[in-house]
Amino acid sequence: MIIHTKDSTSGQRVEEITKALKAISFEQEGSHVVVTSSSLKEVPSQYADDIEDYWVMDTDIQLASNKYRGERREVRLGKLKIGGATSNTMVIAGPCSVESEEQIEQSASFMNSLDVHGFRGGAFKPRTSPYSFQGMGVDGLKLLGKMREKYGFVIFSEVRDATHVDDVIEHADVIQIGAKSMYDHGILRACAKTTKPVMIKRGFGTTLQEFVQAAEFILSGGNPNVILCERGIRTFETKTRFTLDLCGVAWLKENTNLPIILDPSHALGYRYGISDLSKACMAMGIDGLLIEVHPNPAVAKSDASQQLHHEQFEQLLRELEPVANAVNRNLV
Ligand code: PEP
Ligand code: MN
To answer: What would the DSSP string read from start to end of 9-42?
Structure first.
């Protein structure tokens, strides 16, 4: 159950209620929100006078549920907004990893020339093998910060553990929680303590319920700026790297209030179909599209097979425009 207490209810009383109901509470726009387990179906009568409004919930997808908020949340990403009353679909592009100043400058100046505002690059890479490139760490983040300064990008970069959160907050605009990290409660709790936007990627073996409940950890800590990212799940199929779950996206749109970004690059794992998939994603009426692009994919230190060449990405953007128009989305 989600409870909004009255303005007249004191902070101390909110604490008492929170403790008695074994709940979590936080402040939102100056008032208090108390969230109990969804198994609580009735307001205990002794608190009735303290309560402004309440929502009885079916499952522990609560703050993220559209039963709580019918409209999609608006999230401000640097100078841009997604969700809310906007029809914005933000294009976020850039290499898988920040590899060197030269590579990131080449990529950034190209994206700037195409008027792309969302720029991505991993500095802390959660790799499958300990012997693969692990990322440039803080030096990589500083390079992204430099590109932000130079071109005014909205920077997305991932954390690999909770100790990276402060550095990503300093040098980037959106904290990315990767598919392999989304169960890390140290990360989730650290991201709950800030109001910096967080993009949480769905684990490849994660149900939609588990995915959104991970987002609940951040929301219930008082950070309202959470975005979901579908990036493919593991199925019996091995010809493609993962399977992009567009049915899942339809479910998320229907049942949650969080902006949704789609990442066809990690789902497919190969360059050849990214353009088609991007158009399919766009047709779903989503809030953002994340695409990996590298100045020279053949020498990329991670995800080489799926990163687009610059010309391919330019062509993709051209083809995306009419699809965006057809579904009344505004590419930003
Ligand atoms: C990435 O965005 O480069 C990445 C590692 O993605 P994922 O966590 O979805 O595998
Ligand atoms: Mn990648």
So the answer is: S-HHHHHHHHHHTT-EEEEETTEEEEE--TT--S
